[in-house]
Design a protein that fits this description.
6 helices, mainly alpha, disordered N terminus, single chain
Length: 212
């Protein structure tokens, strides 16, 4: 029999998904606005870094794809592991939302910086560099966050408000979903390591065009 405590992929959790999604969107907006708070000198320094990065991409310099994959996979694993640990700690629920907000800030700042320095050419570069892996990463982290928050709520109800209940099935369900999301994040790491560099190398021409 399926547990009724957590249905992360159906409409019963729609409000929680909407809430977490709004947190991410607010983070993206905040990250974009942060770009405008930078001084002119800071913007020029970051623009120089982006220009140097674009030159490296357009030159087609060799990359260690295997090492890049493991670096990205380990980064995603740590992020997901932290969300999972916060979920089983109960008091970590606000920190899960903080991580989702931070993820949005990082994306918003990156895209905002590209747009600030390169206009519509930066938008095109973002669509080919930032967007593809995040099509997988963001939904995976969103699902992991919702399941972690749901499990925390279940723990509070079982341990603090109601009688002691069995946690084995909810815990295994929560763990299984997070492991599935980990697999999705590793797929995103493969995309970032083996596909994104080629897309970004081709798209770097947009950044050069904006400087011409």
């Amino acid at each position: 029999m399926k547990s009724s405590w957590m249905k992360p992929l159906v409409k019963d959790q729609l409000s929680l998904y909407v809430f977490v999604s709004v947190i991410v969107v607010v983070g993206v907006i905040f990250g974009t606005l942060m770009v405008h708070a930078l001084t002119l000198e800071q913007q020029e320094d970051l623009a120089g870094d982006i220009h140097h990065f674009a030159q490296m991409l357009s030159s087609g310099s060799d990359s260690d794809y295997g090492q890049s994959f493991w670096d990205r996979a380990w980064l995603h694993t740590r992020w997901l592991l932290l969300i999972w640990l916060l979920g089983i700690s109960v008091i970590g629920m606000p920190l899960i939302l903080a991580l989702d907000f931070l993820k949005g800030v990082l994306i918003g700042f990156t895209v905002g910086l590209l747009i600030q320095g390169h206009g519509w050419h930066g938008v095109l570069f973002s669509l080919l560099s930032v967007a593809p892996p995040n099509i997988i990463v963001l939904p995976a982290l969103l699902i992991a966050s919702v399941t972690s928050i749901s499990f925390s709520v279940h723990l509070v109800k079982q341990r603090l408000l109601l009688r002691q209940g069995k946690l084995r099935h909810p815990f295994l369900t929560h763990l299984s979903i997070c492991l599935l999301m980990l697999g999705a994040l590793w797929v995103a790491a493969l995309l970032e390591a083996y596909v994104s560099p080629h897309l970004m190398g081709w798209a770097s021409g947009f950044l050069h065009a904006s400087e011409g």
